[in-house]
Design brief:
The structure is a single chain. The chain starts with a strand and ends in an 8-residue tail after the last strand. It has about 450 residues and is of the alpha/beta class.
């Protein structure tokens, strides 16, 4: 099949590459000429494991093309996937200006039947508005062309997006048109050969499903973080509690790892957007509001531990903290809503110096803190420890899981670790002479 995909971010580029991998002809549209030029030359502008080789292979074999012209991208395409950003506004509502602009351009340029697929995460009712926008543009052109607008939300995890797309748990399609549903089933057929994974529902139900899924996962994260804070105060061990509740099949172990809260481009934005949508319909979403509040508080949990530890020693001013991990999660360079950034802001506001390292998110961190003289981004994992009083582990990259503790101890001014991801054994580090602070356990005296 011939596809046009508008937007080359995480969702757009992964979708385009994976569709092309299955033999489809895909043309990607992006308004940034430099991004398009780089992609044509096989240079991928986002970090996602496995994506580079798929993009390069399908570009070289002619199935994947890139352009800045939506008219060129749509030519001959049956499907037009809308994969542009929907960032949060200051009030938490969803900025749909990019989505609606694409809708206008589709209406201005379409010459034959198109299935317009909303793959961007959008509030309930967006597909109806897109349908109206396209219709208005066609009316202005005084032409009558058949088209359909459907919802096909993505469920990709950053860091594992390629695998998620190639081997999906489910494919949600929102449409009331039987023919359109069958065409999308055919498009997704190669990704679901063992069983039919396509779930067809109404457009608004599909739009709601995306938000419900992300808000459910965000709720699990905030719940276990709330439990971890209680554990610290009552003397329980949240790791044991997690094992105890995770063994219940109704709960499961996924997304109940205590830490420093969720970040990234999806969970924070989607929770806020659903809160905003609910309030537009005069319903107060108390649970979702609490999930958001707990998460915002949890992002400061490690900085509170650092500040409390150094308070009897004259505070953190003039001292240096080494940080391992800056991305909001492992296997990505995405630093949006990253807990590490809140830690850095909290501590530098008190005069503490920061030396930090991340396998891939260093450049994005330099851009964020280029005006802060207290922040230094280092390009080697152990070099970041030089001159530091303590180490904070913030992102759970594999290379941090079993480090050289002897080397850490020799490099730091004091054997002191603050672990925001509970990667290490408190008893082992205690035997090695470290003062070790983690999440959901009573801090050492």
């Amino acid at each position: 099949m011939n596809l046009c995909i508008v937007g080359t971010g995480y969702v757009g580029l992964v979708s385009a590459a994976c569709f092309a991998e299955m033999g489809n002809d895909v043309c990607c549209v992006d308004i940034n000429p430099k991004v398009v030029e780089n992609l044509r030359n096989g240079k991928v502008h986002i970090y996602e494991p496995g994506l580079d080789e798929i993009v390069k292979r399908n570009t070289e074999q002619g199935r994947l093309k890139f352009t800045t012209s939506i008219a060129e991208g749509m030519e001959g395409a049956l499907f037009v996937f809308v994969c542009v950003g929907t960032p949060s506004k200051a009030d938490g509502s969803c900025d749909l200006s990019y989505v609606y602009q694409v809708g206008k351009e589709i209406g201005q340029n379409m010459t034959d039947y198109k299935i317009v697929v909303d793959k961007s995460t959008v509030p309930v009712g967006t597909a109806d508005k897109m349908r109206a926008i396209i219709g208005e543009e066609l009316k202005a052109r005084n032409v009558s062309i058949e088209y359909d607008v459907v919802s096909n939300p993505e469920f990709l995890k950053e860091g594992d997006a390629v695998s998620d797309f190639l081997k999906p748990d489910r494919v949600v399609v929102g449409t009331e048109n039987v023919r359109t549903a069958e065409l999308l089933k055919a498009l997704y057929g190669p990704f679901a050969r063992s069983r039919d994974k396509v779930i067809v529902m109404s457009v608004r139900s599909a739009e709601m499903t995306k938000y419900a899924a992300n808000c459910m996962l965000a709720t699990k994260i905030s719940f276990i973080n709330e439990i971890s804070n209680i554990c610290e105060r009552v003397g329980a061990d949240v790791r044991d509690v997690r094992m105890g509740i995770g063994s219940d099949s109704r709960i499961g172990y996924q997304f109940i790892y205590p830490g420093m809260g969720y970040g990234g481009s999806c969970f924070p934005k989607d929770v806020k957007a659903l809160i905003d949508t609910s309030r537009q319909y005069e319903f107060e979403p108390q649970l979702l509001a609490s999930v958001d509040e707990v998460n915002n508080r949890q992002k400061h949990v490690l900085s509170r531990k650092v500040l409390n530890y150094f308070e009897p020693q004259g505070g953190v001013k003039g001292k240096t903290l080494a940080i391992w991990g800056l991305a909001f999660k492992a296997n990505t360079d995405d630093v949006r809503e990253a807990a590490a950034f809140e830690l850095i802001r909290d501590l530098t506001a008190k005069g503490m110096k920061i030396r930090c390292f991340d396998p891939v998110a260093g450049p994005n961190t330099r851009k964020e803190f280029e005006g802060n003289e207290l922040v230094e981004v280092v390009d080697e994992q152990y070099a970041v420890l030089e001159g530091a009083t303590a180490l904070a582990v913030v992102t759970e990259w594999n290379q941090f899981r079993n480090p050289d503790f002897d080397r850490i101890k020799k490099s730091l001014k004091a054997p002191l670790i603050f672990d925001g991801r509970n990667l290490y054994s408190p008893s082992l580090l205690g035997e090695m002479g470290f003062a070790y602070f983690c999440i959901g356990r009573r801090d050492p005296k």
